[in-house]
Write a structure and sequence with these properties.
Layout (H helix, E strand, L loop, with lengths): L1 H19 L8 E3 L8 E8 L4 E8 L4 E8 L6 E6 L12 E5 L4 E9 L5 E9 L1
Length: 128
């Protein structure tokens, strides 16, 4: 009986922690996917209360990534940060970036707001 209870508890804990792995401390993880035959995609989203949304994109070393972030509302400031699979930050601009990718793997694109109001945004992602 005791082994059965421990097993059930273990399964319940596993089921509870799986959805949490798809979240960051303040926001959600989203996998960026391209339509078949396309090298770019447009993402529309919203962020609230100093939160962040994280977009994960798998790419290869030597490819060129182009990111353009546009704020669709005027009441919140959105920023863009890109982190390579190595953990190194890549960008030096708040609203876009273009460059050759230094590593193969998952790149994380962080969209954050520095305002407590809702900020709507459009992110265009291109890989060449």
């Amino acid at each position: 009986m005791r082994k059965t209870n421990i097993f059930i508890l273990s399964v319940v804990l596993l089921l509870v922690t799986i959805p949490l792995s798809a979240q960051t401390k303040k926001g959600n993880l989203h996998r960026v996917r391209f339509e078949r035959g396309s090298a770019s995609t447009v993402i529309k989203g919203a962020i609230r209360n100093w939160s962040e949304e994280v977009y994960v994109l798998e790419a290869r070393q030597g490819q060129t990534m182009i990111l353009n972030l546009r704020e669709d509302t005027r009441n919140g400031d959105v920023t863009l940060n890109i982190v390579a699979p190595s953990g190194k930050a890549l960008n030096d601009s708040d609203n876009g970036w273009k460059g050759k990718l230094p590593n193969s793997g998952d790149y994380k694109i962080y969209i954050t707001t520095i305002n407590s109001k809702t900020a709507r945004f459009t992110l265009e992602v291109t890989i060449k």
